[in-house]
Amino acid sequence: MEHIRSYCEYINMYFQINENQEKQNKYHKEQNKCLDAISNKLLLMDKNNKEYYAKMIAYYLEHSASIDFDLDTAFRKNDGLFPYDDATLCVVELVLHIYRLFFMCNVDMNNYLKRFTIPNLISEKENSDNSIIFDGILISKVYNKCNGKQWENISKDDFINIIKSNGENNSLKIKDKEINRTKCIFKAIACRIEDIEKRKLWIEGIKKHIFNDVDFMKATLQTNRYGAGYSELDINFKPFLDNL
What we know:
- The chain is mainly α.
- The protein has helices at residues 2-17, 21-25, 27-44, 47-68, 71-76, 86-104, 136-146, 156-164, 179-191, 196-209, 232-242.
- The radius of gyration is 19 Å and the shape is globular.
């Protein structure tokens, strides 16, 4: 429990109380420490103790973590998307990973939660119309970070429409000097699509409708300090991109 509590305190401190970009960029390291500790504990536990452990984590999430992070709203949404609050997104991300770890041990944490339900995203590789199911956390992170910065402000629903329609429902107006960073963002989204054929179709659609048939999958940030196209903005943008 101390590892989950420590992670939540880290997120609360550096995302909400005393915002620190450098610490925010390293949150994945803290998350991995927490998940490693939980994994190691689960490997040493029998079935009964795993269930007790799940109960304790469920109680902590509902009665302690929910005080600082809006988990109730996050897990009550019907559309599989998550709130705009970056701090809550970081904790939601951890909870989804924890759910997966317990699921692998044949323990369903939802059996011990009363206020909300953690969505089971493990087996949801495709839906009835064979379309792509995108990671809600990933899409929320991209929208929160890039909307109004890399492109002109659009609604979150419009952004989701662009993603789900393979760019066909395009309302994106990319800002001057932000085309390359936008390409890198869409490249990162593409790399998260597991099905190879679906990924190819999505890439072709985005290439055609968003980037005028330019191959955005070749885009890279200009982070070489000795390179001709070096960009300080890219240096600052890289940690976000690496954490997607």
